[in-house]
Hints:
The structure holds 2 protein chains of 2 kinds. Chain A is mostly helical. Chain A has one domain (2-98). Chain A is 82% helix and 0% strand. The model of chain A has no long low-confidence stretch (mean pLDDT 85). Chain B has 2 domains: 2-90; 93-153. Chain B has helices at 2-6, 8-31, 35-60, 64-112, 117-134, 137-153. In chain B, helix 5 packs antiparallel against helix 6 (137-153). Chains A and B meet through helix 1, helix 2, helix 3 and helix 5 of A and helix 1, helix 2, helix 3, helix 4 and helix 5 of B.
Amino acid sequence: MILIEWLQFTLGVAFLLAGLGVFAVQVFGVFKFDYVLNRMHAAAMGDTLGIGISLVGLIILSGWNFASLKMALIIVFLWNASPVSSHLIARLEATTNPHLERCCELEEGIMEHLWDEDQREIIYADQHKAEEEK
Amino acid sequence: MRIIMEHSWIFISIFIFLAILLLFCLIRAIKGPTIADRVVAVNMMGTIVMVVIAMLAVYMGEGYLLDICLIYAMISFLAVVVLTKIYSGVYLEKLAKKKRQQQKAVQAESIREGSTGKNRIKEMKTEETRLKDAGTEEVTNKYTKRNEQERSDTP
Lengths: 134, 155
């Protein structure tokens, strides 16, 4: 019995420390990269893998009860919410940055799929004016 | 549970480590050159705080803290959605305002030059042909529609 308890404790703490390692790598990556869209790649790691491993460790530590079910629910919610919020942040950056092609490679014609119709009208009018000036 | 209480220094050191990571996230949120940088940093801080709350729930043996953790996750997701919508909306609004002011300036100039109605229509036609040369039919359709509206407005 004592052996099983110790096994549970060490396994849980090991998972928790692995999650902390992922968080440390995440923060290091956010300081290492130069541009937001690169930084987001590092930041998304902690949102899914870091909190996933940490909460699996806490589930092992807390044992088989209702609290562990709630933690599993948190993991599942974050797996769904994190890509959506990353997509929204990337879209914000692509909309508000007028010189996106200087910061990263763009595929041909990818900007046309980015905006709604009224937003596209506003932005393309400016681009046409710039082309005419050339 | 008994073992956690006997070795509480592990949990406390993990709390301290997470607090240091939170401090670095705060530095990133202050330094970040663009708005998206700050939103990413705030999202990261939210994730780390969620882990701290869940650890506190296991450490203290209080299950209700996990409900708070779940609500925290939902609110931080909502905050990201609202912030991105607001900032992109403000930016596009500013762009549209600038464009409207430019159009007004061009119209005022043409009126000041004393161009008659016929000349104005000629100018518009030349503009249409230029846009057709540029080769985007969608935009030209929009422009012609707008010009027709303007013509019907002006007697």
